[in-house]
Specification:
heterotrimer; A mainly alpha (about 230); B alpha/beta (about 250); C mainly alpha (about 230); A: about 230 residues; mainly alpha; 10 helices; C: about 230 residues; MetI-like fold
């Protein structure tokens, strides 16, 4: 294959192709937003489980995190889309296939995957606040919950937000893998446009730019947060 | 040996060194003291250009160290520098810490470097720890190794930046004894320190700095018995008695 | 399940070899190792360029790292697949394409790991070495890198595990690694998706979890060795 002749970006930025790409971008953003909204509370829960004093909870949390993180996202997606529905009762399976199964399974896979990583970051963040901080708060007379609220959590938040933003960036990029199960997000649409128009450079160029733009916005947020709320070491 | 000519250095708006002019002769032992932030550490670090200056000149052995044709690494290998935090290389044994520079900079053969290093380690009293890692040594032993590491290169000039400030009190003496021994052998030494007893006993001259200026310069006798500046008197009074007079 | 293993076990492990190119789990592991061996030196070079004070090195390196890290891995693979052959002048095999994409992608991640490792070595070490008269290059070689390497070991292993997981994306361009084969088997067998994709997940889990544990053990061994008194001198 050779890249000869002019590049004509207007082919991809107008008409049907443009609407395909835009709808793809829209779905990618939706997948990211929904998975993020679900992952954060789930991750907090798993982190608390792993920090708890109850051995069974700690074990459960660890098993979840290790099982999810050591398997590629692609395999997760394949499992949830091709294998999991077989385990559902017929009525549930019908419901699923009538309601955009591809997107639903993509969100399930993305949420479980992202949650595992975020849980680890939250756990590290809480553990990174020196125990002496809690001791100092208690020595002043604050109760456990008060100490947590006034002293520990504000410090933990500063430590935890940057890695969580980093995971959000990963989540955004990971939505591209949903193309494998037929989810019509940006990567899928880009392939579709390329197959139809043979305009590889223009199509993938525009799609890459779209990914980069959002990535840069996320990174810019992280930099701003780091400057505005630096995690000071004692 | 060392000559400062109108040296100035700024950290942003803060004037760390203010029109510093001074000469340190061959074989002299000079102690620099003063309150925190006075610029004493900054001054000593400009001698081997660990800090850069904004204006003025510094000459070592008659050579302008900021001249464009100066070979900085060559200059540094002929100046020994001992840090407050020792800065030994943790992944190398004590012996290897000391033989690294002679082998890689002077092209010395390993066996010869080893013998030379062991002799110097013997002199500072830690030869029995030659094969240990720095983490296995006490603070005082580590600092003595740091001195040995610098000495192996046989520098005509040795600089000490608060060599005992990071040590527990009981180990300060062993390090000061080593430095005193060097002074008695005629080395040119410049030492930034708070140890006034050491200054009185070993220094040929004491420089007192405050806010970037050298306020006072004199023999130990002049310095302790008859300081000229009120600021110096206040410093000495604070040192002698930690509790302010009522 | 046993029937599946009997019929497709070998195919899963080594693909069509010897009646075709090497595939399956063997290909996955080979790709992973090769990619890491090539990406690491690239990462070191990029890291050095990133921390260099020369603008000609610093800005392009920073730009490359930001662009590649803001793009999904899948997109990098597509770029390699569609455009590298044209750039180089002749057709590239699927394996070479995938390898190139993996090296570029992971090279930038290694660059960040190496950069953090180098900057994690205390400034005092650099100063002490320069004060002795060691040149910048010698200081890096003898003082900074050895210490940085020890800091970086866990992150390096993490990145290796991540690379192994990324090889699964090769299935999208038709490379016969282990996920592709699982899909092939599933389309033939149809009725056992849970067993097939479950087995795929388990395979990756065993591989990745095993490697992480091994690295953990090695890390402890290295730490212990440094505390023991060495026998020989120097």
């Amino acid at each position: 294959m050779s890249i000869t002749g002019q590049f004509d970006f207007s082919v991809v930025t107008t008409g049907a192709y443009r609407s395909w790409l835009v709808s793809g971008l829209g779905l990618s953003l939706q997948l990211t937003a929904i998975s993020l909204a679900l992952s954060l509370p789930a991750a907090a829960t798993v982190a608390l489980m792993r920090l708890s004093g109850i051995r069974a909870l700690r074990g459960l949390g660890t098993v979840y995190v290790e099982a999810v993180r050591n398997v590629p996202l692609l395999v997760h997606m394949m499992f949830w889309y091709f294998a999991m529905p077989e385990l559902l009762p017929q009525s549930a399976r019908n419901w699923l296939y009538e309601h955009d199964a591809e997107s639903v399974c993509a969100v399930i896979a993305l949420t479980l995957y992202t949650c595992a990583y975020m849980a680890e970051d939250i756990r590290s963040g809480v553990r990174a606040v020196p125990v002496t901080q809690l001791e100092a708060a208690r020595a002043l007379g604050f109760g456990f919950l008060s100490s947590m609220r006034r002293v520990i959590l504000p410090q933990a938040l500063r430590i935890v937000v940057p890695p969580l933003v980093s995971q959000t960036l990963n989540l955004w990029k990971n939505t591209s893998i949903a193309t494998v199960i037929g989810t019509a997000e940006l990567m899928y649409q880009a392939q579709r446009v390329e197959t139809d128009s043979f305009r590889g450079v223009e199509t993938f160029g525009v799609a890459t730019l779209a990914y980069l733009s959002v990535s840069l916005m996320i990174t810019a947020f992280a930099t701003w947060f780091h400057h505005r709320f630096p995690a000071r070491s004692p | 040996m060392i000559e400062f000519r109108q040296v100035n250095k700024y950290y942003g708006d803060l004037r760390a060194l203010a029109d510093v002019s001074e000469t340190i002769a061959h074989g002299e032992v000079v102690v620099i003291c003063g309150p925190s932030g006075s610029g004493k550490s900054t001054l000593i670090r400009t001698i081997n250009r660990l800090e850069e200056i904004d204006s003025g000149q510094i000459l070592v052995d008659g050579i302008d160290i900021h001249a464009p044709d100066v070979r900085l690494d060559r200059l540094r290998s002929s100046i020994g520098f001992v840090f407050q935090q020792f800065n030994l290389f943790p992944h190398l044994s004590v012996l290897r810490n000391c033989t690294l520079a002679p082998i890689h900079l002077r092209g010395m053969r390993a066996a010869e470097a080893r013998d030379r290093a062991l002799a110097v380690l013997e002199r500072v009293g830690v030869a029995d720890k030659a094969n240990a890692l720095p983490s296995q040594l006490s603070g005082g032993q580590q600092q003595r190794v740091a001195i040995a590491r610098a000495l192996v290169m046989e520098p005509p000039l040795m600089l000490f930046d608060e060599p005992t400030s990071a040590l527990d009190p009981e180990m300060v003496g062993e390090v000061l004894r080593v430095i005193r021994d060097l002074a008695h052998h005629g080395m040119t030494l410049v030492c930034v320190t708070h140890e006034m007893g050491f200054a009185r006993e070993v220094a040929d001259r004491i420089l007192f700095m405050d806010q970037g200026f050298i306020l006072e310069r004199g023999s130990p006798r002049e310095f302790f018995v008859n300081p000229q500046h009120a600021r110096t008197r206040r410093f000495l009074a604070d040192i002698r008695s930690p509790f302010p007079s009522d | 399940m046993t029937e599946l293993i009997r019929n497709y076990g070998v195919y899963f492990l080594i693909g069509q070899f010897p009646h075709g190119p090497l595939g399956g789990l063997a290909l996955t592991m080979l790709l992973g190792v090769a990619a890491v061996l090539l990406a690491l030196p690239l990462g070191v070079l990029l890291a050095l360029a990133r921390i260099s004070r020369r603008r000609l090195l610093h800005w392009p390196a920073t730009a490359v790292v930001y662009v590649v890290r803001g793009t999904p891995a899948l997109m990098v693979i597509f770029w390699a697949y569609f455009f590298l052959p044209a750039l180089i002048g002749h057709k590239m095999g699927q394996v070479t394409t995938m390898l190139a994409a993996l090296v570029i992608f992971n090279g930038t991640y290694f660059a960040e790991v190496v950069r953090a490792g180098i900057q994690g070595v205390g400034r005092g070490q650099m100063e002490a070495a320069r004060a002795l008269g060691l040149s910048h290059a010698k200081t890096l070689r003898w003082i900074v890198f050895p210490q940085a390497l020890r800091n970086m070991l866990p992150s390096l292993v993490n990145q290796f595990v991540a690379t192994l997981k990324e090889t699964s994306l090769a299935s999208i361009i038709g490379l016969q690694e282990v996920s592709f084969i699982a899909s092939q088997v599933n389309s033939q067998v149809v009725v056992h998706p849970v067993a097939i994709y479950g087995a795929l997940a388990l395979t990756f889990f065993a591989l990745c979890f095993g490697l992480s544990r091994l690295a953990h053990v090695l890390e402890k061994r290295v730490a212990v060795q440094r505390l023991e008194l060495p026998q020989a001198d120097g």
